[in-house]
Write a structure and sequence with these properties.
33% helix, three-stranded antiparallel β-sheet, 274 residues, binds iron/sulfur cluster, alpha/beta, nine-stranded mixed β-sheet, TIM Barrel, binds S-adenosylmethionine
Length: 274
């Protein structure tokens, strides 16, 4: 069984992003984490979870690094008996908030994999996407994480933004491979309803050539493609688990769960799939 926990807070809203996130609700963090705890307790019962039955835990967002490790601690203590000894425990993190303190706090709770939202190492592109970090902050955060002993590190890149050229993307890939990572998620920019970019959809290039270029250059450097957007010498068990149709608990404001033939959505009735 897999578990996904959704953290709906972000420091700023990226122009492409339609995820369920808020930049003005930080005062609800403590209550939200308590509610997550409560929902997890309900879900473990609904899934008839046994000890050592959780293979992977993924904390995603939003921006998990906007919440202090101390607020995660009760949830980790609660999940501990259910987590397998070798469980893959991933958190997403944004470079501006993944401080050394935050990373070391999460490592002490048992997180063994961090997925950083880098998107690009080009300062102008980061600004155009409305990211809250610069290229150096991304490099520093990944190097801190390595120095703290995390087993697996990943970073996200976005391509097919209007200014992207082979030169720019090659630079992103070369910079990524200079860092101590074992995984890259490379996402083609999509224009989502309700985002800033939906007013100017032309900011997305439809360039299949660049898509092949990105995946070839990543694979050439030894990261095997194992899923549409994912490459690595390490393959995330959590990412693969969805494709293997494993059951997953989804906890939080933007999380979906799946058990046998039914999908569970927040705030709506659940839906039978077959
Ligand atoms: C849950 S999101 C964000 C995690 C983290 N808050 C961050 O921004 O780094 C995971 C990834 O989805 C990708 N993403 C989100 N919206 C996208 C879009 N419209 N087009 C392409 N990639 C997108 C980004 O690469 C992002 O890092
Ligand atoms: S990409 Fe990440 S930081 Fe940006 S708005 Fe979406 S969840 Fe928040």
């Amino acid at each position: 069984m897999l578990v996904y926990i959704h953290i709906p807070y972000c420091d700023s809203k990226c122009h492409y992003c339609s995820f369920n996130t808020y930049v003005d609700k930080f005062d609800t963090r403590q209550d939200y984490m308590k509610a997550l705890h409560k929902q997890l307790s309900f879900e473990l019962e609904r899934f008839s979870a046994k000890e050592n039955s959780i293979e992977t835990l993924f904390i995603g967002g939003g921006t998990p690094s906007t919440v202090a490790p101390e607020l995660y601690a009760p949830i980790f203590a609660f999940l501990k008996p259910y987590l397998q000894e070798e469980a893959e425990i991933t958190t997403e993190a944004n470079p501006n908030s993944a401080t050394k303190e935050w990373l070391s706090g999460m490592r002490d709770l048992g997180v063994n994999r961090v997925s950083f939202g880098v998107q690009s190492f080009n300062a102008d592109k980061l600004k155009a996407l409305n990211r809250a970090h610069d290229p150096q902050q991304a490099k520093d955060a990944i190097l801190y994480a390595k120095s703290l002993g995390f087993t697996h590190l990943s970073l996200d890149l976005i391509y097919n933004y209007q200014g992207d050229t082979k030169t720019l993307l090659l630079n992103d890939i070369v910079q990524a491979f200079a860092l101590p990572i074992d995984h890259i998620s490379a996402y083609e920019l999509t224009i989502e309803a309700g985002t800033k970019f939906s007013d100017t959809p032309e900011v997305r290039q439809e360039n299949e050539d660049l898509a092949f270029f990105v995946s070839d250059e990543i694979e050439k450097r030894g990261f095997k493609a194992y899923e549409i957007s994912n490459f690595g010498t390490y393959q995330s068990k959590h990412n693969k688990g969805y494709w293997e149709i494993k059951n997953y608990i989804g906890a939080g404001a933007g999380a979906v769960g799946f058990l046998k033939d039914t999908r569970f959505y927040p705030q709506t009735a659940h839906r039978k799939l077959y």
